[in-house]
Structure formats: C-alpha cells, structure tokens
Backbone:
C-alpha cells in the first residue's frame, strides 16, 4: 500500500463519490464498496483506493506479463489518476516524497 499526500483542500474534491468518479473517468469504470474504490486497467489487474481526507491510499495488483505498450499506457493512466485524485503532478509527488524521506531520516539520526 502506498499513501499519497493530498493538496490542501483537495479532500473535498474526492469526498463522497468523487474518488469513484475520478477513477471511472481515467480507467473507464470503477466501483465503490464500503468507502473503497476498485478498478482495473491494462496491466493493473486490481487497483483499490481510499482516502481519510488528508491522504490517498492505493493498493495495486499488477500483471507483469503484459506487452510493453500496455505497461506504458497503464503507467500513464495511473499517473493521470494520481494527479486527478491528489491534486499534485508526478513531479510534485516525487518532490514531496523526497522531502518526506529526508525528514524521516533526520528524525532517526
């Protein structure tokens, strides 16, 4: 499971049915069961996502045996989903992850 920070105020955007709607727009179809959204697309056989209003939590199951073009399209769709769900681009998410890792390392040291 991975956790992604939400842009300030973004929790309102994906609250209620918003996260299922975002997943449906990106992956074509998505279901919501007990507050968790599930979808599948390309090499991603199952994606489960949910939020606590401050972060987006995502679990994925992948099929490693797909052709390269399917894998690339899956990555692009997953990045579009994360951008729409978190409010951050892939570059911004990477920068925030690095900052978080540095802060965690400083606490341990």
Residues:
């Amino acid at each position: 499971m991975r956790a992604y920070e939400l842009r300030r105020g973004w929790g309102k955007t994906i609250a209620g049915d918003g996260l299922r709607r975002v997943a449906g727009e990106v992956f074509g179809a998505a279901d919501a069961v007990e507050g968790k959204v599930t979808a599948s697309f390309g090499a991603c056989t199952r994606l489960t996502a949910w939020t606590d209003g401050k972060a987006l939590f995502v679990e994925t199951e992948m099929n490693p045996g797909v052709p390269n073009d399917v894998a690339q399209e899956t990555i692009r769709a997953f990045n579009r989903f994360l951008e729409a769900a978190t409010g951050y681009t892939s570059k911004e998410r990477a920068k925030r992850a690095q900052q978080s890792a540095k802060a965690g390392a400083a606490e341990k040291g």
